[in-house]
TrEMBL record:
Name used for this protein in its record: Telomere length regulation protein TEL2 homolog
Domain TELO2 ARM repeat: 288-370
Lineage of source species: Eukaryota, Metazoa, Chordata, Craniata, Vertebrata
Annotated GO biological process: 'de novo' cotranslational protein folding
Predominant localisation class: cytoplasm
One Gene Ontology cellular component: nucleus
Protein's cellular compartments: Cytoplasm; Membrane; Nucleus
GO MF assignments: Hsp90 protein binding; telomeric DNA binding
Domain of life: Eukaryota
Gene this protein is translated from: TELO2
Annotated keywords: Cytoplasm, Membrane, Nucleus
Sequence similarity: Belongs to the TEL2 family.
Listed Pfam families: TELO2_ARM, Telomere_reg-2
InterPro entries: ARM-type_fold, TEL2_C_sf, TEL2_Regulation, TELO2_ARM, Telomere_length_regulation_dom
């Protein structure tokens, strides 16, 4: 009797079953063939040698045939229980690496049966098959027969599974495939694999951590190290505290991470471990902690670091500084007295100033006696400033929060007690007076004429009269055009110099609205006065910023289309004040709208740019724009625009960019664009990030508003240099907003170049 090899037997048996599955029209025959194939799965009764041969040479072939049956009548006739037995089980009880690749390939390539593949892939993840896959790459030491190409493919699929799934499923992606859930579960699977590795080593068997280390490195390199190491770091820190074997396994794990990914792994681990606490545990290591404190303090007080590093990095350094202080005693931190927080308090970025104030207060409580401790007027928004509260928690220093917790609680108790007392004291027999028509009797009446309003603002020492005059000023100025023009410049001068002596409610908003009304109703003389006064002597920074805000808001209102008499009045969109809109967000919205109008979308066709319509701003745009460029480089005693007053320079850049943007389709737009490019080119490498944001916003505005042929003619000699500068900013600038604006500028520049090449100007 002739005997055949296990390889031949498995090949013949599997081939016969697969032919039956692929060609049979009888469901019973297909069921029997699949049950025969199931003998070779993990819990089947086939011998170990035949199961190994099936896994090596036949398993992927079986899965391919099963995927092709998704559109067959046999598959659609299966109930849920039989489908799980005859179809799902082949993906959940075979070699997990091959099953994972087949499922992901099917999800990305098929349409019929997609839901079934997604459901099985969910079961694959939730049933621990990834854990089985990782262990299959660890057991047996270095004795693995799979090819390097296969291992690299499996590695890539595991590391990028959420991205691969989302590219196909989009908004229908299951929760298990989302990065938050997937990478945390992957971290748990890595921990379980490491634990099984320790158990195997204890009984004298070899294991290899190469695949797990490569997976950890690849995941961290792709930016998911925070999720994975957030789970790994606390457990590894606890397990390695007293277990030598766990220490050895953890070291091997990090040693086997490929060199190109080591930095990503170490960075993610450090963010989730308290290395400083380790240095503070023993007296012999506390010297290192003091050296760390000195280095961190030098970085924190470095003005160059404040200007050129992202806010997130500065927050991290601040946390490290306060944590070092909390771990050292009073004598070890005396050298901090030599530090200087002025560079942070002088910053234009509110978050940086707030960090400086919080850290300064915390350090002062540690270093100074109670009578001389620093106290800033720091207010916290509990909804958006959670990161700053972490600094306080790191330092373990008591800090008085605004009236939110304790104060709010006592106010609530007090009001509840008062209401309960009133309910006992109420008397239904007493009829209350009807006071619904009562009016507050005012001693002073509101002015009804513009000159009376002006006189009240100039000479009144009565707070009530001043407030009433401010409240009606805008309405009076817009209602009486001829009277407004008679006193427009004088009225503007009074408002510009008016101070909030009586803490009037809404003072700055009311004053600003009145000045905008003056600029809109009598544009040329008022704007000429404001632009001249911007560079004049003896004005505060606040007044110069007020001038820029008024110019921007009045230009926005004037740029609204002139209403057509046939269609009725045009509703004017209320302008957002520059002070309230934040530093970049409002300007970015302006740019984004114009970018969208210039962007071609294949599904929607070519979007048309906004139609040119008459407005009141185009004829007077030059009065707003050019005087602001006149004396920017002239240093004065009270005003140095290119020196210390970079806050005003940054806001000036934003204002000029907005004025440029509003002048689109105006005849003067080309001249404005040329002048603005010359201005920003001189300060494009400014150290302050607010100024750089303004420069890039102005560049975006020029690229959006100037005709492409005029733009390219203006910058043709410096086109390559402009590209190189913008590319460098987009890649290397520490500020995220600068990088984003530079990228938008590059896109707009390339679009202008393509438009010019596609439609060259006609020669005379």
């Amino acid at each position: 009797m002739r005997s055949s090899s296990p390889e031949a037997e498995v090949r013949v048996a599997v081939g016969s079953c697969l032919r039956c599955v692929a060609t049979s029209r009888r469901n019973e025959e297909t069921d029997r063939a699949l049950r025969a194939l199931a003998r070779y799965l993990e819990d089947g009764d086939a011998s170990a040698s035949r199961r190994a041969e099936f896994n090596r040479a036949q398993y992927t072939r079986v899965l391919q045939v099963l995927v092709r049956t998704l559109s067959s009548d046999w598959f659609h006739s299966l109930c849920a229980e039989r489908r799980k037995e005859l179809w799902d089980t082949f993906f959940l009880k075979g070699p997990p690496d091959q099953a994972l690749m087949m499922l992901l390939d099917s999800v990305n390539s098929i349409s019929s049966g997609l839901e079934q593949c997604v459901r099985v892939l969910e079961n694959f993840l939730s049933s621990g098959r990834v854990r089985v896959l990782l262990w299959s790459k660890c057991e047996g030491g270095s004795e693995h027969t799979d090819s390097a190409r296969l291992r690299e493919t499996v590695l890539g699929r595991l590391a990028a599974l959420p991205t691969l799934a989302a590219n196909r499923l989009h908004t229908h992606t299951p929760v298990l495939f989302l990065p938050q859930q997937y990478y945390q579960q992957l971290a748990c699977d890595i921990l379980a694999t490491l634990e099984k590795t320790c158990q195997t080593l204890r009984v004298g068997q070899d294991c290899s951590l190469g695949f797990v280390a490569q997976l950890l490195g690849k995941v961290c390199m792709q930016g998911h190290g925070g999720l994975v190491c957030g789970m790994l770091a606390p457990h590894l820190s606890s397990l390695t505290r007293s277990d030598v074997l766990w220490q050895r396994v953890s070291c091997k794990l990090l040693e086997n991470v490929p060199e190109r990914w080591v930095e990503s792994v170490i960075t993610a681990l450090i963010h989730n471990l308290t290395v400083l606490g380790y240095l503070a545990l023993e007296e012999g290591r506390r010297l290192l902690l003091r050296q760390v404190l000195q280095s961190v303090c030098e970085v924190w007080c470095n003005s160059s670091a404040v200007r050129h590093t992202p806010v997130e990095q500065q927050l991290y350094v601040s946390k490290a500084l306060l944590l070092c202080v909390s771990l050292l005693n009073h004598t070890d931190i005396q050298e901090l007295r030599e530090g200087n927080a002025t560079c942070r308090l002088d910053s234009n970025i509110e978050c940086v100033r707030r960090i400086g104030m919080v850290v300064g207060e915390c350090l002062s409580q540690k270093l100074d006696p109670p009578t001389s401790q620093l106290k800033f007027q720091v207010t916290f928004d509990l909804s958006v400033s959670n990161r700053e509260f972490l600094i306080i928690l790191c330092c373990n220093v008591s800090y008085s929060l605004p009236s939110f917790s304790t104060s709010f609680f006592f106010v609530f108790l007090h009001s509840s007690f008062c209401l309960s007392c009133l309910s006992f004291l109420s008397d239904d027999d007493l009829t209350p007076y009807d006071m619904s028509h009562d009016q507050v009797k005012q001693k002073v009446t509101s002015p009804h004429y513009i000159r009376d309003c002006l006189e009240a603002l100039m000479s009144s020492n009565d707070p009530e009269r001043l407030e009433l005059s401010l409240q009606v000023a805008e309405e009076l100025l817009r209602k009486n055009i001829s009277a407004t023009r008679e006193v427009s410049v004088k009225f503007t001068k009074v408002l510009l110099h008016l101070e909030d002596r009586y803490n009037t409610t809404g003072f700055y908003k009311l004053r600003q609205n009145a000045m905008v009304a003056l600029a809109v109703m009598h544009t040329q003389p008022v704007v000429e006065y404001l632009t001249t006064e911007f560079y004049s002597l003896n004005y505060s920074l606040r007044q110069r910023l007020d001038i820029l805000e008024v110019l921007a808001l009045s230009a926005q209102e004037l740029s609204e289309p002139i209403p057509d008499k046939r269609t009725g009045p045009h509703s004017v969109t209320p302008a957002t004040t520059l002070e309230l809109c934040g530093e970049v967000e409002h300007w970015r919205q302006v740019v984004e709208k114009r970018i969208q109008s210039k962007t071609r979308r294949i599904s929607k066709g070519v979007s048309q740019p906004p139609k040119a319509t008459p407005n009141r701003y185009a004829p007077v745009a030059g009065y707003f724009f050019f005087p602001l460029l006149r004396n920017y480089d002239r240093q004065q005693v009270t005003f140095d625009l290119l020196g210390n007053d970079h806050l005003v320079l940054g806001r000036l850049m934003h204002t000029l960019g907005l004025l440029m943007h509003l002048a689109i389709n105006a005849p003067v737009a080309t001249q404005m664009g040329k002048a603005l490019l010359d201005f920003v080119w001189a300060v494009r490498f400014h150290a302050d990030q607010m100024v750089r944001r303004g420069v890039l916003f102005a560049v975006c505005a020029v690229f959006l508003s100037m005709p492409s042929e005029n733009l390219l003619m203006e910058i043709s000699d410096d086109l390559l240099e402009n590209r190189a500068w913008l590319a460098d900013i987009a890649e290397n600038d520490p500020d995220a907003d600068c990088r984003s604006l530079a990228m938008q500028s590059l896109v707009l520049l390339e679009r202008n170049v393509k438009s010019h090449l596609k439609n060259p100007p006609l020669e005379a």
